[in-house]
Amino acid sequence: MYKYDDYDQQMVDTRVEEFRDQVRRRLAGELTEDQFKPLRLQNGLYLQLHAYMLRVAIPYGTLNSTQMAALGDIADKYDRGYGHFTTRTNIQYNWIKLDDTPDALADLAKVEMHAIQTSGNCIRNISSDQYAGAAADEVADPRPYAELLRQWSSFHPEFLVLPRKFKIAVIASEIDRAAMRLHDIGIRLVRSDAGELGAEFHVGGGMGRTPFIAKKLRDFVPIDQMITFAEACVRVYNRYGRRDNKYKARIKILVHELGLEAYAREVDAEFAHLLTQPIEPPLAELKRIQGFFTDPPFAQETGGEVDPDDRDDPDFRLWLDRNTYPHKQPGYAIANVSLKPIGGIPGDATSDQIRLMADLAREYSFDELRVTHAQNIVFPHVKKRDLYALWQRLDAADLSTPNLDTVGDIIACPGLDYCALANARSIPVAQKISERFGSAEKQAEIGELKLKISGCINACGHHHAGHIGILGVDKKGKENYQLLLGGSEGADTSLGQITGPGFDEDGVVDATEKAIEVYLANKQGEERFLDTYRRIGMAPFKEAIYG
Amino acid sequence: MKIVTGNDLKSGAVIWWTGVGWSLDVNQSADVADQGAKIIAREEGVQNVVGAYVIDGEKDADGVRPAHIKERIRALGPTVRPDLTLKPADPAAVNWVI
């Protein structure tokens, strides 16, 4: 894991004290809310429906156990004993007091964390593959490159006031586990035929009210020019992106309206210019960063296998089959913790659960955890022979739900229960669907089904990318829910299509059930819901739902 | 009736204008008629409230009920966490929101 150097620590510490003074001035009446609002937002502090909300950055979703434990302690010390893990792999606290915020930020700084650039029209938290450094299918570990991008984008003087917020994802596998093509810039690390590492650039993706799948801009940018090329991409956006209409200000609109070719020409010209000015970080810096991301000291003998006797425990077997993923190292596995208990609130974890996961990472996963964009937690390096002991500890804390990538593993934004922008509640819909389809038998029958719910058109719940997506809207002062089918966020990224008129809360749960019934009646072989939908099209689903 | 609501500057808590001050209880809300803008300017100016605005509501025998569901959720708390609402001992209070 990356460790702050003196410069990193000094920047974060200084920022805390700067904000402490800004809060003091606000409370003393020396700053108006109009003056203070952009300052608090730059430090991740929103004013939400019930209280202030603090969004803490978790760079590329990576945490060590000390940091995770600190997140649990902050939940107790400054909030109401829980946190909410988000689709940007951050954590949010929903009940922070303004005068406590500087102390909370100081506590974060002690464990090399902050809330800088988790809001505002700047480059936000860089996201990545939650299996980075553990998956067998990656061409390189994407984390050093994500860290390089983090350092480049933090306090970048040119990019702190972009036309709109800007999100970047970096992956290094053919399988996209980070919704890379739904980002403003998506980068996939690739190898040339000669074995050289490079970056494949995608631009102009995003969800929100106008969803677009990112278009491929470059097949291969030499890795020692990645930052320079990213700078060219963002610089062109900063120059031409619209500032007159916030709904048309994202890079996806620029790329769409300008056209990919015209945008690419501008980027190429800017890139050529930038190459004459040495802005790429020196190779020595990349090497220094890479030094923090070496493999953990895996056991020389293999990590062993799961004891056959342990497999006799049917609950463990279910979890093992559903929530673990192959590791690159023989004898090890990647273990996923679902934060989606049946009927629970997606992404929420209590302070005790957070601290327990910190302890378990220390004991079983070389001190490492990851947060996923699907609002779950990952132990990236667990010996197979330790999986049963790990599962038992998780099970005792209600953290062993075996539903990864099934209908119960729902992404849901906080919705109208917490969010000032929302039009409808997301969480109660997620809870009802989870309860209706949550049994192990039902989930096994349905198989992989990614269901995503947003409480407004801003799409924080990624509804466009759900095999089944649900969008909450306000219809004459009442909550109403649109149903979408056919979205995906992986290598086969697609945008869901609306089925037709919307429903009330119970109605959309019933409609979801009908859609699943159509799938089960029509599936062939090992088809997933998405495969069947793509083969038979929307018509049979509409007929069942509205007929 | 017209109600003024906002958030307490220091704690962020949802508060309601009572006619003489601010309360956490929506039932204490006063009908501000056409005086909302004046009240907001004064109260924000002395740091008593942040993000204040005027909403519609109704008053009946049961108390004050904001017209829009969003404001009723603000008045009570998150419907999915009855323990964190202003009526933690009354899980049925959520029905008032819906």
Automatic annotation (TrEMBL), chain A:
Domain of life of the source: Bacteria
Domain Nitrite/Sulfite reductase ferredoxin-like: 52-110, 345-397
Stored Pfam families: NIR_SIR, NIR_SIR_ferr
The entry's keywords: 4Fe-4S, Heme, Iron, Iron-sulfur, Metal-binding, Oxidoreductase
Domain Nitrite/sulphite reductase 4Fe-4S: from-to ranges: 119-273, 406-545
The protein, known as: Nitrite/sulfite reductase
Lineage, uppermost ranks: Bacteria, Pseudomonadati, Pseudomonadota, Alphaproteobacteria, Sphingomonadales
Automatic annotation (TrEMBL), chain B:
Top-level taxon in the UniProt lineage: Bacteria
Annotated Pfam families: DUF2849
Name this polypeptide is given: DUF2849 domain-containing protein
